[in-house]
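Quick check before the chapter quiz. The format below is the same one you will see on the exam, so make sure you can read both the input and the output lines.
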Amino acid sequence: MEASHQPVGTRPSHGFAFGKALPVDGKKMVSRDHKLSLRKQCELLQLSRSRLYYQPVGASAESLRFMEIIDKQFLETPWYGSRQMARYMKRQGHKCGRHRIRRYLNAFETGSEMRVGIGK
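Here is the expected output.
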């Protein structure tokens, strides 16, 4: 019986499922010198073509300064939430909105890298 006519649970696996992300960075697998076009390579790897051209933007000096101020204040007043921290920043003369502060606080709590440089 052909693999395509077998029940789904009994088909041989090739290490990935269609519609799922590849476990390795597909961007490294795309070659501009390959005989297949970039479009076709991306289609086969299920990779968005925009990922090939995306260049990550580093943190702005303003974002780093805000993170430093918020981190220092958070160590002194860990009970401050995003609203209180936003009022604190406003009292200090900084223009930093509550949602931006919430994003910074979430990153501090989880210890994760965050996308900075987004917004003003």
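If your answer matched, good. Confidence is low (pLDDT under 50) at residues 13-19.
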